[in-house]
Amino acid sequence: MIAIGNLRFRYAGAGFSLHVPEFRIEPGEKVALIGPSGVGKSTLLKLIAGIMPPGSGSIRVDGTELQSLDEAGRRNFRITRIGFVFQELELLDYLDVFDNIVHTYRINPVLKLGAEVRVRAWNLAGEVGLGGKLKRMPRELSQGERQRAALCRALLPQPRLVLADEATGSLDPRNKAHILDLLFQAVQKQQSSLLAVTHDHELLPRFDRVVDFHQFHA
Amino acid sequence: MQHDFYLAWRYLRHHRTRSLILIVCLSLLAVLPLALHILLDEGERLMTARAEATPLLVGAKGSAMDLTFNALYFSESTQTRITMAEADRIALTGWADPLAIHARFRVKGHPLVGVSLDYFDFRRLSLWSGQMLAMLGECVLGAEAAESLGLKPGDSLLTSPENLFDLAGVYPLKLHVVGVLGKSHSPDDQAVFVDLQTAWVMEGLGHGHAEAASSPFDPADLAADAKRVTYTEITPENLDSFHFHGDPANYPISAVIALPHDHKSGVLLRGRYLSAEDAAQIVLPLESTRGLLQNIFRVGALFDGVLLLVGSATLLVLGLVFALSLRLRQGEIHTIFLLGCSRATVVRLVGAEILLLVVAGGALSWALLVWIQCYAGDWVRHFVIS
Hints:
The structure holds two protein chains of two kinds. By secondary structure, chain A is α/β, with parallel strands linked by helices.
């Protein structure tokens, strides 16, 4: 699913640099990425998602070499193949839960918001316990519910790969376990791969594999 | 595109106070200059129509504008008055029919106008209810005057004392409302019409020998006694005792509307008033009105310039507000970029918001302008002409 070879990245004007000699995730595999803050875990996820272009090296996701795509190509690839659960959730305060879940479809011409997608959004929201709260605004939800809405948004396009950046970071232990359950169920159901950045060591046994970021960081 | 407008609508609705302020600002930018022009055009239309319908006007020498406004719009005037002799002089020429107007008094804010019955035919004023003036002491109300005074045929209306400190002065006259005129959308709607003789009674030129009446006395309320009003009332019983002293030709009037029989008669009549020694003047109301309108339009053009400057400044401020709001929305724009939105889509979303604001501002402007258009005539009559 993911094959990275000799990836190098450096933020312009910053001392930070990232070097990933080799990293692979197999289809359907659930991998946890751990490491201290500031080492580049989130940067790696953004590089894999094609949000940022790599400096050098190779990133192959679902058989597609990201370097071979231009900005629009990477964007289209991301919205059709990759689901991203952001650390900051990135819900829009002026849209209700339903509109936040389907927002990706409204801003990308390559995705069509048809009846089938709407039904899938309702079902997905129902599965994560937001069925009765689709007309609520994000400010009216608890942190756990907002997390679930962000999860639904990431899973709606049925991505081949789900990237989760501290998806459970701000939750209490009960909600953490619940969100992770939902994430694992959805990934299992869609037969997607999962790469999740986490600091919660008690959640690690639930993943197929744990990767310590120290092994990449130069 | 449909999604762009949907998202723009949701954003504007969520920030409804900010959106409303922007809409109102945009709307005012359009409405202010257009409303000014609507009011100016309506003023021009009304004033020109009234002036066009009044061929010639004779009054005391002085300001032609003052004379025109007093005779046509019953505005208060400090101008010297003429006498009925002027009306007789016009009639004697055989070139025109005179319509004398006595527009000196006001009653409860409304002009009290003394005219002959021919005036109603000349202005095509018809009765909406009641009957025309038939007896001394009767009045007929313009439609708006009747409405604002809350009077109908059968009611009475007490004129205001001319001077509270003039102990030897004339008592107020209790007028009997006998009719209400239909709406004419002219200054006549605001007027209280009486017969010329009734106006002269109010001047103190005619009087009866009956005792003056007083408002009802309540023995239980002695304090109210001081507030009792003594007035003159003309009734069928005391009508015969009313009479006038002196030569009617010397009775004062404000102006005479001269209705020439043809163009030549009008020119000849105007020639009669060319003498510098003549105490009266003849004016073409249309000329006086156009002179005034030219000045008004000059001021209007100045307003246009000012509004253009203010509008430009407001537009710049609105642009700045929008630019600053985009800076405040960097977080949101970053989010939609993360979700896979292209720069072109962001531009389209912002464009949709601006378009919605402009359309809403335009709709509000349109509604306001329709409303202003509906009431422009009334406002011009109330606040400008009368």
